[in-house]
């Protein structure tokens, strides 16, 4: 009996692996065709300035609208695109599309684009891609922010830093995304050619519930201030979190409390408006605007 159970379990196990594997391969093939078929779409999530209560920026978030599988999360297909090397093609498409959308917004509103570690590979000229897109679109370079994560810096930090320096020389801004999750060594932060740090949502979740997180928030805000970096807090969902955040000099707030990622069409009427709640009232009156 025990033996039979064991064998059955083994058969089920190999089937599961095979299915998972075949699914991965199928997805990979479909990924190759998806750009051509126009299955990718950018959604945008506004980032609000706590002083003015208006959106000063929107983050582009990639969506794959699969004809049969439905919406596939970037958490699934970005790693796949990275493994297959398709991320460079896809990433260039995202940059172009994000800039194109931003051209229909007020000039005071910027666009922030996630860039994968592989887009800094030696074989891919990201600086050339961005330079060409800036020239063709005519967008003011400072309106474009490129979001990187610490993982981009692991393999060949000198090379990536040189690319970031070149991007900044074009006038583009650089943000360090997901700050507070990785191996954030505070000592290297001072040497990175970046303009902004974005506090990760996992960290934001702790705000207002743990004293430790609140005092860390204090330390990060102080650090950002000393290093002359802009500070954006993402993943803000609750009033408790917002109350803690508003005590600090924060330049941008992003999260479901104000807006979810949405289509470019839905974003358009929102970006001129102030946040339609009294939530930011205290901050607004403090800044006197
Ligand atoms: P990210 O860059 O850190 O983006 C923020 C993620 O948090 C987004 O998930 C966003 O929808 C979600 N989010 C925003 N506000 C809240 C909130 O209040 N609560 C919670 N729980 N979540 C919130 P999304 O769109 O699923 O993207 C996941 C990740 O996929 C992104 O994390 C980014 O790392 C990656 N990604 C998305 N688009 C692209 C892209 O075009 N290129 C690359 N390389 N990566 C991308
Ligand atoms: Mg991001
Ligand atoms: Mg993030
Ligand atoms: Mg993230």
Automatic annotation (TrEMBL):
Keywords: Membrane, Transmembrane, Transmembrane helix
EAL domain boundaries: 24-275
Keyword Membrane among UniProt keywords: yes
Membrane is among the record's keywords: yes
Protein name, as recorded: Diguanylate cyclase (GGDEF) domain-containing protein
Natural source organism: Bosea robiniae
Coverage span on the entire protein: 349 to 637 of 647
């Amino acid at each position: 009996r025990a033996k039979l159970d064991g064998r059955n379990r083994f058969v089920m196990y190999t089937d599961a692996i095979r299915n998972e594997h075949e699914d991965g391969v199928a997805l990979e093939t479909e990924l190759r065709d998806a750009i051509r078929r126009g299955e990718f779409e950018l959604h945008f999530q506004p980032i609000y300035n706590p002083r003015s209560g208006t959106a000063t920026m929107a983050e582009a978030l990639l969506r794959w609208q699969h004809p049969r599988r439905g919406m596939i999360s970037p958490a699934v297909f970005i790693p796949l695109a990275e493994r297959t090397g398709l991320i460079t093609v896809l990433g260039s498409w995202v940059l172009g599309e994000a800039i194109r959308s931003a051209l229909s917004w007020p000039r005071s509103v910027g666009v922030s684009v996630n860039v994968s570690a592989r887009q800094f590979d030696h074989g891919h000229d990201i600086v050339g891609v961005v330079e060409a897109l800036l020239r063709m679109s005519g967008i003011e370079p400072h309106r474009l922010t490129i979001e990187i994560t610490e993982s981009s810096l692991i393999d060949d930090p000198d090379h990536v830093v040189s690319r970031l320096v070149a991007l900044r020389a074009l006038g583009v801004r650089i943000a360090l995304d997901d700050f507070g999750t990785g191996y954030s060594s505070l000592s290297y932060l001072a040497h990175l050619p970046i303009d902004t740090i974005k506090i990760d949502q996992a960290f934001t979740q702790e705000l207002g519930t743990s004293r430790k997180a609140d005092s860390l928030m204090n330390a990060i805000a102080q650090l950002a201030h000393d290093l002359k970096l802009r500070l954006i807090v993402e993943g803000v969902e609750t009033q408790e979190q917002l109350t803690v955040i508003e005590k600090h000099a924060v330049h941008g707030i992003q999260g479901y409390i104000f807006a979810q990622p949405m289509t470019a069409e839905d974003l358009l009427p929102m970006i001129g408006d102030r946040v339609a709640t009294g939530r930011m009232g205290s901050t607004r009156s403090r800044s006197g605007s």
